[in-house]
From TrEMBL:
Any one of the GO CC terms: plasma membrane
Gene3D superfamilies tied to this protein: Immunoglobulins, Receptor L-domain
Keywords: ATP-binding, Membrane, Nucleotide-binding, Receptor, Transmembrane, Transmembrane helix
Name of the protein this chain belongs to: INSRR protein
Membrane-topology descriptor: Single-pass membrane protein
Subcellular location: Membrane
Length: 539
């Protein structure tokens, strides 16, 4: 998208010390990508005269949105020529805002080559929301142009039917057709230029509408294949024959209005007393009311040993008004495969419960890497490669431990025995014996909890410390009682460890085992942080 790329590169510029020259830029529709430009100082000028020079831009239609933008040009002139879609009113408005009015002559703002292929001087650019019945048709204005007014609309879940007043230019044969522009607009803040370039990227959908056969019939259109419960921005423009002669440049265009389609499965919606403008068509089989698609981009974090915070984004296709989200969570059993490793000699890398980095504030740019991190790494030795391979294999087992949803029971153990052999070392480790797993032993049946939330986040509380949970989120719209909610999107999350949970309760007892060894016994922690995989003894 050219407009967004230009804004990303040039949108922070506030002052141009010299001049601004826009020349032969076919793809430009607006200069609003200079979002923060406040001053063109004119220390140097084009041909020694022009601080702003705009020449031969075939698709340029808007300079800036002057209701939200202020620009100053303290010295120098402006030059506009061969911009066929740039209306003179836009240029004259810029003269007033920038303080350059009276500096330019007619040759420097040529009325014959600016706006000669556009329907100019229509309306005042206001943007309204369409609510209830559309306004009554207005009478043709006494000026060169006219603001088109909609006279009726009918809305379904996947289509919108519109009618607008019949535009009557002074020369009726000059009216050729109408063009309807429409696009999805979640917010009511668009104009016909925002995010648009002449290459068509992210531009409006365009639909040509022929003139009705009868001169008394109001023109209309059916916008089809729309998405249910989605707001659309719409405006209509009349296409007329124009000439370069002054006084014959007529045109008409509507304001931008907003219409939301009906939820999936609903019938027609229209304002009181408005005629139905839907074309005659054969009876159709009732459409199935679809459920929403799945919620997107689920992320989670644990901020304590008993809480997990979950966030997500709304579904891509809501197919109606999302009334609530259904959140379900269930504790997962620990993986028995973790017992097969020799933790006493290989060490133990515990799973983490840190917050997802996307929980941070904003979407700021990533921190640039240090120069040292950008250097090529040294080639590791063979022994190091072997150790890294073993560590990688070990880490994969832990990933399975974190993400495996298969429930495997663990036989409870209440006591642990170990023989510590006296040697030159002063530390030792002991592995607990692998619990038995009889073939007929049933899997633990953890309770499933659920909650209904209306926002795109949930806080799960009263959870067990250092325990993995599977969390499912369903989106439910107005038709959930008949078609059900969406399929589930899920995420795995682990609570943080409890600080005192791994302490040994009671005392350690011992008895002689031989001349150079003793037998130690202790109680297992009553509610440890996850699996007990090894004990470390220091002496």
């Amino acid at each position: 998208n050219l407009a967004s790329e230009l804004q990303s590169s040039l949108g922070l510029i506030e002052t141009i010390t010299g001049f601004l020259k826009i020349k032969h830029s076919f793809a430009l529709v607006s200069l609003s990508f200079f979002k923060n430009l406040k001053l063109i100082r004119g220390d140097s000028m084009v041909d020694g005269n022009y601080t702003l020079y705009v020449l031969d831009n075939q698709n340029l239609q808007q300079l800036w949105d002057w209701s939200h933008h202020v620009l100053s040009i303290p010295v120098g002139k402006m030059y506009f020529a061969f911009n066929p879609k740039l209306c003179l009113a836009e240029i004259y408005r810029m003269e007033e805002v920038t303080g350059t009015k009276g500096r330019q002559n007619k040759a420097e703002i040529n009325p014959r080559t600016n706006g000669d292929r556009a329907s100019c001087e229509y309306g005042d650019g206001d943007i309204r929301q369409l609510r209830g019945p559309l306004p009554e048709p207005c009478h043709p204005s006494t000026g060169k142009t006219q603001t088109l007014r909609f006279i009726s609309n009918v809305t379904e879940s996947d289509r919108i039917f519109l009618k607008w007043e019949r535009y009557r230019p002074p020369e009726y044969r000059d009216l050729l057709s109408f063009i309807v522009y429409y696009k999805e607009s979640p917010f009511q803040n668009v104009s016909e230029y925002v995010g648009q370039d002449a290459c068509g990227a992210q531009s409006w959908n365009v639909l040509d509408v022929e003139l009705p056969l009868s001169s008394e019939q109001a023109p209309g259109v059916a916008l089809l294949n729309l998405r249910p419960w989605t707001q659309y921005a719409i405006f209509v423009r009349a296409i007329t024959l124009t000439t370069a002669e002054e006084g014959r440049n007529y045109g008409a265009q509507s304001e931008v209005v907003y219409i939301r389609t009906m939820p999936a499965g609903k019938g027609l919606a229209r304002g009181p007393g408005m005629p139905v403008v839907a074309p005659q068509r054969r009876a159709e089989t009732p459409r199935v009311r679809p459920a929403p698609t799945v919620p997107r981009d689920v992320i989670s974090m644990s901020n304590s040993s008993s809480h997990i915070v979950v966030r997500w984004k709304p579904p891509t296709q809501r197919n109606g008004n999302i009334t609530y989200y259904l959140v379900l969570w269930q504790q997962l059993a620990e993986d028995m495969e973790l017992y097969v490793n020799d933790y006493c000699h290989k060490g133990l890398k515990l799973p983490t419960s840190s917050a997802d980095t996307r929980f941070g504030d904003g979407d700021g740019p990533e921190v640039e890497q240090d120069a040292e991190e950008r250097c090529c790494p040294c080639r590791p030795a063979d022994g190091q490669l072997r150790m890294e391979g073993e560590a990688e294999s070990f880490q994969k087992k832990f990933e399975n431990f974190l993400h495996n949803s298969i429930i495997i029971p663990r036989t409870p153990k209440r006591r642990r025995d170990v023989v510590a052999v006296t040697s030159a070392a002063n530390a030792s480790s002991a592995e607990p014996p692998v619990p038995s797993r009889p073939g007929g032993e049933p899997k633990p049946d953890f309770q499933i909890f659920e909650d209904k939330v209306v926002r795109d986040r949930a806080v799960l509380s009263r959870l067990r410390h250092f325990t993995e949970y599977r969390i499912d989120i369903h989106a439910c719209n107005h038709a959930a009682h008949t078609v059900g909610c969406s399929a589930a999107t899920f995420v795995f999350a682990r609570t943080m460890p409890e600080l005192q949970a791994d302490n040994i309760p009671g005392n350690v007892t011992w008895e002689p085992a031989s001349k150079n060894s003793v037998l130690l016994r202790w109680e297992e922690p009553r509610n440890p942080n996850g699996l007990i995989l090894k004990y470390e003894i220091k002496y």
